[in-house]
Amino acid sequence: MTVNSPTILALDFDGVVCDGLIEYFEVAWRTYCQIWSPVNDTPPDDLALRFYRLRPVIETGWEMPVLIKALIAGFSDDKILQEWTSITPQILAADNLKAKEVSTKLDNLRDDWIKTDLDGWLSLHRFYPGVIERLKITLASAVQLYIVTTKEGRFVQQLLQQEGLDLTPNAIFGKEVKRPKYETLRELIKKANTQTVSLWFVEDRLKTLQLVQQQSDLDHVKLFLADWGYNTQPEREAGKNDPRIQLISLSHFAHDFSTWL
Q1: Cα distances (Å, whole numbers) of residue 252 to 37, 129, 257
Q2: pLDDT per residue over 61-77, tens digit each?
Q3: Of residues 240, 232, 236, the one with CA closest to residue 80
Q4: What's residue 74's pLDDT?
Q5: What is the DSSP code string of the chain?
Q6: How far apart are CA 124 and CA 17, in angstroms?
Q7: For residue 101, what are the CA distances in angstroms to 31, 40, 89, 107, 156?
Q8: Which neighbouring-strand residues pair with 246?
Q9: How far apart are CA 144 and CA 121, in angstroms?
Q10: pLDDT of residue 60
């Protein structure tokens, strides 16, 4: 590989490869209803749009029904954007809930949905324009492609297979690996077993990229913030102004690696 292309390409999934906002809201609403048993099981008219706008605060899937609870409980959008990390424990504690319980309920609902209505579930996901073609070209090249995500690996595999992409399970690092993404990047470099590793990592969460930055042994990893993903304008500005992070557009991502830099 040249300096203008990687030997390893690691991609986040949600917000980089796939837009699952419609499915997120639907499964989050179903989980919310199961946990909090609202009188009306039809969501308020503006709830989905507010949820979509606030999706950038979500780090892992269990937070999604908690976000709906926060919105129903009357927290403002601004307060959620500013104070989300302190709001989630408040909501869990108020109902004596654990994050693991919420996560299990959400995953079980999703599993049941996939078993009973796979086509319906798949139809609620949209792959960003040009991304599948970019992945297919990468797979056909000498570049090693990996998905590094907080989504369950089996869900990722199911969605990619639908698009004709058969990524082996050992190329997908999902929520089940239970470790920070920077640890997975470290493992990928170690597994490459060569002195000339060039790892590029594309992520839509600025915080995740900043955590990678804090690892001194990963200072050679090229970091890209996807400007089409689940992030806010201030986060994109911060990424743009960070000399270590490259803000990348979808049009550049879909083209040759040389256009990324």
Answers
A1: 45, 11, 8
A2: 999 999 999 999 999 99
A3: 232
A4: 97
A5: --TTS-SEEEE-SBTTTEE-HHHHHHHHHHHHHHHH--S--SPPTTHHHHHHHHGGG--STTHHHHHHHHHHTT--HHHHHHHHHHHHHHHHHHTT--HHHHHHHHHHHHHHHHHH-HHHHHHT-EEPTTHHHHHHHHHTSSSEEEEE-SS-HHHHHHHHHHTT----GGGEE-GGG-S-HHHHHHHHHHHH-SS---EEEEES-HHHHHHHHT-GGGTTSEEEEETTSS--HHHHHHHHT-TTEEEE-HHHHTS-GGGT-
A6: 14
A7: 11, 23, 13, 10, 22
A8: 224
A9: 29
A10: 86
pLDDT at 156 over 90: yes
Per-position DSSP letters for 30-95, written without gaps between them: HHHHHHH--S--SPPTTHHHHHHHHGGG--STTHHHHHHHHHHTT--HHHHHHHHHHHHHHHHHHT
Tell me, what's the pLDDT at 1?
47
Average pLDDT for 229-243 = 96
Place of tokens 């909501």: 91
Kindly report the number of other CB atoms within 10 A of residue 167's CB atom: 17
**Cα Rg for the chain, rounded, in angstroms?**
19
- Judged against a pLDDT cut of 80, whether residue 41 lies above it is answered with yes
* Residue whose structure tokens are 């969501």: 43
Note the Cα 187 to chain centre separation in Å: 20
CB atoms within 10 A of CB 38: 14
Q: Pick the closest to residue 99 from 52, 68, 64, 73 (CA basis).
A: 64
- 18-19 and 126-127 beta bridge pairing: antiparallel
Task: Find the Cα–Cα–Cα–Cα dihedral 57, 63, 69, 71, rounded to 10°.
Answer: 10
